[in-house]
Amino acid sequence: MASFTRTLPASWYCSSPLYQLERRAVFLKAWYLLGPVTRFQVVGEEVGYEVAQVSLTACRMSETPGDIKVYDGKTGLEFKAYITETGLLFSTISDEAPSFDEFFPDLKPLIGTVDFTKLPYRRSIKYEGNFNWKTMVDGYQECLHCQYTHPSFSVYYPPTFYTVYNHKNFSQHVADPKKADDGLFLYFFPNCTLNVYGGGMSSFRVCPTEKPGVTRMEFDYYHQETGEKFEEYFKFVRQVAMEDYELCEKAQENLERGIYAEGILNPVKETGVAFYQQRVLDLVCAQHEAETESTTDTHYETNNHMRQWKLVDPATS
Ligand SMILES: [Fe+2]
């Protein structure tokens, strides 16, 4: 019988020590999309971010295109940053991250198809939700929920053709192959997205707080138009975002109730979920192993989660 990929255990969505391990294993070693260069138009204006409890600031230093620095909001020390040829700014949040090319070896051809310097920045919003960061990423990485959760979105992008292509540290979502110019959806591991559709562009970051059941959502919106046309686009994309938000809060409630422990993933429609969860699992397990080798382990709860995983994982039992 074919074996199915299983989800991460529910306990991984509810545990503080597990999140701290994720922070060291995943977040401190990753690259983050801060936005297209149009987000940083004003020389000297500081744009603040917070990723996994690290404060960072991006600032355009001069009129020279691409002269943008990213630095630690507390110490002022500069972080490794990278601007792609088509104008996307990425940054790290610690020295532990590899080089941009090592992290995203095959990203450039794909983002080279869109000129990100052409879409003006319009608006940002952020708010907290009662769910784990992975609960939101789970939803983003599949579209099985789209037809019933996003009726307005599904009119434009019927889920029939929806396909996810996974690469090293990112996924491309193809909503409708016939609309090649409208509808570029990218997920950057672990928590950033870029969504070009409906005549505009949005980018959101799924920012974990120190509480595993609370996540801060941060959205940036870009559009050629202002006024009514932008507001129409904004209303449309906000509707989709709020539908996801409600779904995540409900999913998290179930994860925290202790009834659901784990499930299996659809081998065709949930490859995006399987891909990123496997990255989290591999990195967290490697980190845990490295830390327990080097110290006398006192992380009792973390050990329990790892043990729980190993007990239920046929590959290791
Ligand atoms: Fe959704």
Automatic annotation (TrEMBL):
It catalyses: choline + 2 reduced [2Fe-2S]-[ferredoxin] + O2 + 2 H(+) = betaine aldehyde hydrate + 2 oxidized [2Fe-2S]-[ferredoxin] + H2O. Residues 118-171, 184-284 form the Aromatic-ring-hydroxylating dioxygenase alpha subunit C-terminal domain. One of its GO terms (molecular function) is choline monooxygenase activity. InterPro entries: Rieske_2Fe-2S_sf (IPR036922), Ring_hydroxy_dOase_asu_C_dom (IPR015879), Rng_hydr_dOase-A (IPR001663). It comes from the Eukaryota. Coiled coil: none annotated. Belongs to the choline monooxygenase family. Catalyzes the first step of the osmoprotectant glycine betaine synthesis. This is Choline monooxygenase, chloroplastic.
